[in-house]
Amino acid sequence: MRRSIFRVIITALASVGFIGMSAKAQQSGMAIKHSNAPYIVIERMLPDSGTAWELQLVLARDEIYIPIGVRKPDGVGPFPLILIGSGQGRDGLLKIDQAMEDVEELMDRFVERGYAAAYLNFRNEIPELYNEIARSELLADTVSGGDRRLQAVPTLDSDDYISIVEHVRALPYTDPEGIGAIGSSHSGEIILKGTGLINIGAGVASEAAALEYLAIDVLAAALNDAGERDFHDIEITRSLADKDVAMQRIVKSETPLLILGRENDHLQGVFQLAYEWLTEADKDVTWASFDHPEHGYSLLRQRPGGPSSPDDVQEEVFDLYMTFFDEHLKDN
Fold first, then answer.
1. How far apart are CA 214 and CA 310, in angstroms?
2. Crossing angle of helices 92-102 and 2-13, rounded to 10°
3. Would you call 146 helix, strand, or coil by DSSP?
4. Is 62 part of any domain?
5. Could you count the other beta carbons within 10 Å of the beta carbon of residue 103?
6. CB atoms within 10 A of CB 20
7. Comparing 101 with 134, which gets the higher pLDDT?
8. Within a domain: residue 48?
9. Using CA atoms, how far apart are residues 90 and 123, in angstroms rounded to an integer?
10. In sequence order, what E strands does 35-113 have?
11. What is the pLDDT of residues 203-226, one digit of tens each?
């Protein structure tokens, strides 16, 4: 099943250029479309429910394509859209293919409420590079001429996030003022990093592993019994973070944020400190924390062994962030 997506894409990509499409590419369900830049669309279907979705390959600022999986309500819109992310960028197209099944329940609910939804991926994080360059730099092309710009340093995963936001804002069926995001773990940190460079209508940073965003000296932290760097205590976390650097980032954010913690998580102090410093900077931020055994509980993911219904805590947190999204992303 996983290999089938590559057969479709390889067949389509071998048959199409940006000028036009062959009949073979059209039969594969592939199209070249345009939002703020040309992008590739490949029609897909969830294996069990038969629900249709689109694999979109989005052009990044360094001209590499990033995969996202998109679903939307029937009709032409404009719809508010919620980006969904979990963890690191990894596995390319396979991550999107699997994630569309894992978060089918969550996307079903978004679509039923009138939201489009896009599960995103980005290139893998380069450890600590964010604290060195903050954003990748483009230089004028003085060799070839024209208006092109060339890459000067490696692209950050947060740069890819920004490219995706710009892409979904320009889709013909989305409300550009109604873009939101929910991200778990590293993808929660990506939302925080992103708000320093591009603001969206609302962001839910769930269990946001904001270690780089808060400029935390990770290697100085003790290991817990599970071998993880222990940042459960907010005071220990505070002592290892660089507040001056973090505040330079925080003051740029104008995105309304909901920070979700998880009791007994080894990074709970990180989640709390992000909320505390955002509050100190007088940002529009709300805090809530829940006791749940599952990392990424807010995404209502399919559990190993097959689909399962969200539990009471998950239903509570879902109601909380949907009220938040409705308030900020829909015209009332």
1. 32
2. 130
3. coil
4. no
5. 22
6. 8
7. 101
8. no
9. 6
10. 38-45, 52-59, 65-71, 79-86
11. 999 999 999 999 999 888 888 887
**Could you tell me if 156 and 122 are in contact, meaning their C-beta atoms sit under 8 angstroms apart?**
no
Domain extent, residue 201, equals 73-329
Confidence of residue 278 (pLDDT cuts 50, 70, 90): very high
The answer to whether position 274 is within a domain reads: yes
pLDDT for res 154: 65
Per-residue pLDDT tens over the stretch 1-23: 555 555 555 555 544 443 344 44
Amino acid (one-letter) located at 101: E
Per-residue CA distances from 130 to 92, 134, 166, 325 (Å): 21, 5, 20, 28
* pLDDT value of position 16: 41
Q: Measured between alpha carbons, how far is 119 from 140 in angstroms, rounded to an integer?
A: 33
* Number of Cβ atoms within 10 Å of the Cβ of 297: 22
β-pairing, 52-59 vs 65-71, is: antiparallel
What is the pLDDT, as a whole number, of residue 25?
Answer: 46
Please give the single-letter amino acid code of residue 203. G
Q: Is residue 125 part of a domain?
A: yes
- For position 163, which CATH number holds? 3.40.50.1820
Amino acid identity at 43? E
Specify the DSSP element, H or E, that contains 328.
Answer: helix 312-329
Tell me, what's the pLDDT at 21?
A: 43
pTM of the shown model: 0.86
Task: Domain count for the chain, please give it.
Answer: 1
**pLDDT, tens digit (0-9, with 9 covering 90-100), for 311-322:** 999 999 999 999
Q: 130: part of which helix (H) or strand (E)? A: helix 130-133
Task: Output the six-digit token pair for 155.
Answer: 């692209």
Q: Which residue has the tokens 């005071």?
A: 235
Residues 6+ apart with CB under 8 A from 71: 51, 52, 53, 54, 107, 110, 111, 116, 117, 118
DSSP assignment of 282-302: T--EEEEEE--SSTTGGG-PP
